[in-house]
Amino acid sequence: MAATVLIFAPTSSASAGWRRALERAGYTVAEPPGRDQWPADETPAAQPALAVVSVLDKTDRDRIATLKRDRPDAPVLAIVSAGSSVRADALEAGADACLPHDAEPVEIVAAARALERRCGQAERERAQLTEAREANRAKDEFLAAVSHELRAPLNTIAGWAQILMGPMVDSPMTRRGLEAIERSAQAQTRLLTDLVDISRSLTGTLRVERQAVLLGPVLDAAIDSIRPLASAKQIDLIYVPLQAPVPLVADASRLHQVFWKILSNAVKFTPLKGRIGVEAGVAGPNVEVRVVDNGMGIPADFLPYVFERFRAGDNPTTRPQAGLGLGLALVRHLVEMHGGAVTAESTGEGRGAIFTVTLPVDVAGCVEPAVATV
């Protein structure tokens, strides 16, 4: 699409020459909507690449100042009448470059292209700066979240260790304390495992050991391991086992990791006495596993980023349910390593979510599938 140039100049043979030269160079030359106005449509596609302003007196200098005030980043090329003071006034008003009125048309085109390149470079630098600031912000939030996630189970372990070393400890309290310590240790183990797996995924060293397995036992094991968490919140976990064997070529332990993370995420964001449904079925050459909950849902503005690393729906230090933004990123990476895909759907906050894992079925059935052990 040709870049647009606005020419603020009285009709003359000179300005007509500028127009012809710019059009031959591939620009679209347009008339300004007003004496010192940019187009009202502020979308990037509707904005001109630059403005060419004829500067003959103070009024024209004020026009440049108005244009730069309204769009500071838009380049303005001033075509000035003879006299160093006019040139100085135009530059002081904000012009990005100046040429004399008797400049050759080829000079006008060259200056326009130079300003367009400079503007493009400035935009890229601003985008890079914004990206760097966003990366720093994400890093700071991630480090704060790691600190929070590590501190919570450590506090539990330390607290129960002090209680168990006290003199008034009976058997039920000892069992309760040991169970709390075990849960906290498991939480830390999962966190550290996720950190290691994310690191390996970034360096390309994360591995899957694929072999012939059946999906049913893998999914059954994931459901069984999540039931205690669902029961603790009185969540109705509805699961209809597969009626026929579905052979896959996959790493059973990694698939268990995928389903457990999706299910634990559903439990985490589903309210007390909520509902989670798990259904699976073959669709053409693939099998689809859907996890549907009636929980908190996913905000529309966050949905496109739900599988990105280090992205959580809210600040983890202020919203206890949020994690580090690692689990779903690992889910996507592991599913894609199996030749599949994972998607997330939600109609908004408070309306639940649907996660769908699609995996290729081993239609050949190759060898007798192993019973998954995870």
Describe the protein's architecture and organization.
The protein is an alpha/beta fold. The chain folds into three domains: 4-127, Rossmann fold (3-Layer(aba) Sandwich), CATH 3.40.50.2300; 134-203, Helix Hairpins (Orthogonal Bundle), CATH 1.10.287; 211-360, Histidine kinase-like ATPase, C-terminal domain (Heat Shock Protein 90). Helix content is 47%, strand content 17%. It has a five-stranded parallel β-sheet with strand order 2-1-3-4-5, sandwiched between helices. The protein has a five-stranded mixed β-sheet with strand order 7-9-10-12-11, covered by helices on one side. Strands 6-8 form a two-stranded antiparallel sheet. Helix 1 packs across helix 4, helix 5 (171-203) packs across helix 8 and helix 6 (215-232) packs parallel to helix 7. The chain is elongated, with a radius of gyration of 32 Å.
Backbone shape: elongated
Largest sheet: 5 strands, parallel
Total tally of structural domains: 3
Output the CATH homologous superfamily of the largest domain. Answer: Histidine kinase-like ATPase, C-terminal domain
Distance between the termini: 56 Å
The first-level CATH class name of the largest domain:
Alpha Beta
Number of DSSP strands? 12
Q: Label the structural class.
A: alpha/beta
